[in-house]
Amino acid sequence: MYTIPLAYKYVTIIAMITQVNYYGARMQLPIHTPLNDDDLKGVRVDIPVTKVPNMSICGGYIQAGNYSFIFGDKSHDIANLDKYGYQSFGIPMGPTESTKSGMERAARMKFIVSTNDVYRMATNWLIAMDVDLDQVEKIKPPHVNNYPFFNSDRGSVPNPLITVVWKGQSEKGSGPSDLEVQVSAITGELLKLSDGQGAFSKRSQPLVVGLKELVAIPDDAFLRYSTLERSNLLVKYAGVHCSDLHCPGIQDVLCRETNTVTESSQY
Asked: What confidence tens digit (pLDDT) does each residue in 51-81 have?
């Protein structure tokens, strides 16, 4: 069984926290930034891929408030979760309520945002995440609210979830480089965002650099590192310095890692 190296785990968690602090504030998401220990509801670090030729992959997951942030090397996926850990519809759900029931209730409520509002909000969020929107729309025009209705018990009714997808004219279905933003028509909240695996990102540096070297650091050696040595790791492999953020202790961070929060959107 593969054990994720502690040095890699530590650097990746701090790198993810730093990005949540930065992008959460720029996007004006309803989460506390900078994050402190109590704000972290879930943390996971993915197993690094270093043995595939010409490829090194790392990433993980953080839940802060009711938002989950899923990271790849340069990609971000954001999801708004309800109190049960499922994809939110912008309304409170019962513990055993079905997707159809939640959609039905939401469709009966007053809509406070239009499709024009959602497109404007979506573009603002993507720009705040350093997406080159001008380049995106040269290749992938936006498709706003492709599914304006859904079949309810009352027949076809307005969809309370408004989605903008950027995809090529000839593309069928969804692809990994498509960008998508979903908003609740009831509350105007961001429900889901995918930046297309970072294909149009202006960011020059991935989440972690020098991955092979980082994962080669033995656990026993890392546990003897001083605060300064850990800070130097962050600078070297993630471009982050402890002085840039609240930097929890090694035990605090590693003990936070958990897989208990689900990201399924199905009830």
From this structure: 766 556 889 999 999 999 999 877 889 999 9
Domain of 131? 101-193
157 and 214 in a single domain? The answer is no
Q: Which of 65, 61, 59 is nearest to 82 (CA)?
A: 65
CA triple 223-207-19, angle to 5 deg: 95
Rounded to whole angstroms, what are the CA distances from 128 to 41, 67, 72, 193, 205?
Answer: 24, 16, 18, 12, 17
Give the torsion sign (CA, 118, 121, 124, 129).
Answer: negative
Does 86 fall in a domain?
Answer: no
Task: Look at residues 36, 39, 20 and name the one whose alpha carbon lies nearest to residue 248.
Answer: 36
Peptide bond just before 34 cis, omega within 30 deg: yes
C-alpha count within 13 angstroms, C-beta hemisphere, residue 40:
27
Which tops the pLDDT comparison, 172 or 127?
A: 127
In a domain, 147, yes or no: yes
Which of 128, 162, 193 terminates a domain? The answer is 193
The reply to whether 198 falls in a domain is no
- Is 117 inside a domain boundary? yes
Other Cβ atoms closer than 10 A to 163: 20
| Structural contact between residues 61 and 42, judged by C-beta atoms closer than 8 angstroms | yes
Q: Are 263 and 81 in contact (CB under 8 A)?
A: yes
- For residues 64 and 19, is the Cβ–Cβ distance under 8 A? no
